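Structure ticket #2291
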Amino acid sequence: MMDVREWLERVRAQRWGMVVDLAFAVAWVTMVHALFLVLDGPDWAYYGFMLAGVVAYFGFMGSLERARADRERSNE
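Resolution: structure written out below.
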C-alpha cells in the first residue's frame, strides 16, 4: 500500500493530467445531463450517453497524444 508521501509525489508529477481528466468528466456529465433535461429522453439513452463518455475520453486523449507526437517529430 502506498503511503501519503508517495501518493503526494505521484499527484504532483501528474497534476495536469488529473486536472484535464476531471475537467473532461465534469464537462461531459454536465453536457449529457443538460441535454436530457431539455429532451427528456429515456433512461437507457441517458446511461448510454454517459457510457459513451468513456469512449469519447479515450478517443480524445489518444488523438491528443498522437498530435503531440506528430508535432514533436516535425520539429526535429
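Closing remark: Residues 27 and 33 are 10 Å apart (CA to CA).
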